[in-house]
Amino acid sequence: EVDDVTLPEGGVVHVPVVKGFFLELPLKVQEFVATYVDLLQPKGVYICDGSEEEEQEIADKLVDRGLLIPLKGMEKCFACRTDPKDVARVENKTFIVTEKRSETVPTGKKYEGYKDDTEIPHGMLGRWMSRSVAEEEMASRLPGSMRGRVMYIIPFSMGPVGGPASKSGVQITDFNYVILSMRIMTRVTPEVWDAIEESPDQEFVQCIHTIGAPRPLQRKVINHWPDDAEHIMIAHFPLQRRVISYGSGYGGNSLLGKKCFALRIASCMARDEGWLAEHMLIMSVTDRKGVEKFFAAAFPSACGKTNMAMMTPSIPGFKVQVIGDDIAWMRFDSNGQLRAINPENGFFGVAPGTNWKTNPVAMQTAQKNTIFTNVGITDDGKVFWEGMEKEIDPNTSITTWTGEKWKIGMEGKAAHPNSRFCVPASQCPVIHPLWEHPDGVPISGIIFGGRRPRGVPLVFESFDWKHGVMIGAALKSEATAAAEHKAGGVMHDPMAMRPFFGYNFGKYLDHWLSMDQPGRQLPKIFHVNWFRLDQKTGKFLWPGFGDNIRVVDWMIKRIDGEDVAVESPVGWLPKKGSIDTSGLDDVNWDELFSLPKEYWMEDVEETKSFFEDEVGKDMPQAVYDELEKLKKRVQTL
Ligand code: GDP
Ligand code: PGA
Ligand code: MN
Ligand code: MN
């Protein structure tokens, strides 16, 4: 069947429709699809309906092609291996396209005095691209990039379909792996067409994804994973509510509902509409008294969100349930209560380090209906990654993520450090009954944290909202394998959002500060560090994982107004002994909570230069003031 579709600029495109009824789509969607059919030149259009038959059909195709490997030792699970050049998000190829540079990134001191925006080097808080350069770059990539391939049209909702805080999207892709993953990570259903139809102005976020491998193929395909790794570009157009991702199949670059839409584009929507789109888990904790509280926590990628969100408490009497593990959309309701929804539908979790001891809930969740990417595969058709050594027979024969035969103890790694499991949230044994509630859950505490090997205590609490916003703005962490940065060095990652800001970070902080309004109950703000090292042994000072409940227990007491804190220069610290460490051997409290003066003096100065160099005049004065106050307090150490 071929439909004739009129382009927005006039002219007609002939669209061979492999599946679905093109002319029944909302008019704006028809125009959107037609525009990209015209540009990308696919051989046909396939309108996804989200059904199980569709899933089966697509999975079968991928298995036939060799991209998906069915795991015979697990239930409805698949593994795949990417091109080794396409294993993580690529921040230096991720751009925000706006008229002026200052809309996207702050003009820190380092970037002042240039004649032309386009001459200014990229900063650390996002990459700006001008419209004209974006047009050129896309013109050299997109035309004909789907030739010989089918264009799939995926209707999806971030948040429960039709919910007051939810948003619709339509993703175009030529990569079947993306369809299966989007079905897990977002809500893919034709009901989205109705939601778009019924919304004012037929609103949806336009997501365009192509792997950039038209047929006949010009390059050798590695691991049946076609891409154009040399020319990856992920461009966001906040004003147009559009994302164009070229050349990569890796999750963070290709599942456009996640980082691109739910963080970068959504942060702009949130600014415009008065809410917050954040890189945060959402969890519920029920304490010994049976009272439930909800927390949102922002840690940079691969710094512990998924683990915390579904942790198994190590002390009796507590219950943790997960609402989300990566992204929170939060707004104050009419009673002044901050409420959060998880816009996602699944977990895209870091595999290495996950095991039956550290995160039994994630292990249990990922036993069925899961897509594993870049993990090791055992000969009996199960998965293996670093951290599972004690949980399988040491003689098990394993194929590594690069396809080598391997055994535990041999050189090299079985799994890529950024290998992932992708699994529906609904099958998590501790998923919260309200996780899909369209109004979200009430947040009592916001937690910031990162990997800080030195100087930073296990936990402290901000004095107030402003101080808390400064703590978030000053967030730092060791780089991880989640993006292309060299792992190990401590780098700034403000609000754990550095790779995900959709607009000028200085303005983003203004927006955070503006949340403080009369009649609102502001959540308490905490900072945690599970990763402080014993400077003598190089081992973690804190056991982490399920034992982190002990720290949350202290936070709950603080929220309840209990007198369990002492004032310190950096914020409220736990009174000695006020965190339950019963049953833990050798917890070195003094070292865990010490505040080395020299370290903090240096840290404050370094943060000040970072703010000045990178944010400059765009930084709200209130944040500079808070930092200055911190500096004065640290001098008294
Ligand atoms: P996310 O990317 O922020 O969701 O981080 P994950 O929860 O997936 O964790 C990333 C890595 O950090 C995994 O290898 C975890 O095993 C490890 N990790 C998570 N929580 C802790 C903790 O409390 N202590 C320690 N030492 N490692 C942790
Ligand atoms: P993560 O999510 O935060 O769980 O690592 C993916 C990412 O941020 O790249
Ligand atoms: Mn993330
Ligand atoms: Mn995670």
Automatic annotation (TrEMBL):
Q: Which InterPro entries match?
A: PEP_carboxykin_GTP_CS (IPR018091), PEP_carboxykinase_C (IPR013035), PEP_carboxykinase_GTP (IPR008209), PEP_carboxykinase_GTP_C (IPR035077), PEP_carboxykinase_GTP_N (IPR035078), PEP_carboxykinase_N (IPR008210)
Short name of any one Pfam family annotated for the protein: PEPCK_GTP
Q: Which UniProt keywords apply?
A: Decarboxylase, GTP-binding, Lyase, Manganese, Metal-binding, Nucleotide-binding
Name the domain of life: Eukaryota
Q: Which residues form the Phosphoenolpyruvate carboxykinase GTP-utilising N-terminal domain?
A: 31-271
- Which molecular-function annotation in GO is an example for this chain? GTP binding
Which cofactors go with this protein?
A: Mn(2+)
Would you tell me the Gene Ontology cellular component terms? Answer: cytosol
| EC code(s) of this entry | 4.1.1.32
**BP GO terms, sorted:** cellular response to glucose stimulus; gluconeogenesis; glycerol biosynthetic process from pyruvate; oxaloacetate metabolic process; propionate catabolic process; response to lipid; response to starvation
Domain (Phosphoenolpyruvate carboxykinase C-terminal P-loop) spans 275-633
Class in the EC hierarchy, top level: lyase
Family note? Belongs to the phosphoenolpyruvate carboxykinase [GTP] family.
**Whom does it interact with, and what assembly results?**
Monomer.
Q: What is this protein called?
A: phosphoenolpyruvate carboxykinase (GTP)
Organism for this UniProt entry: Helobdella robusta (Californian leech)
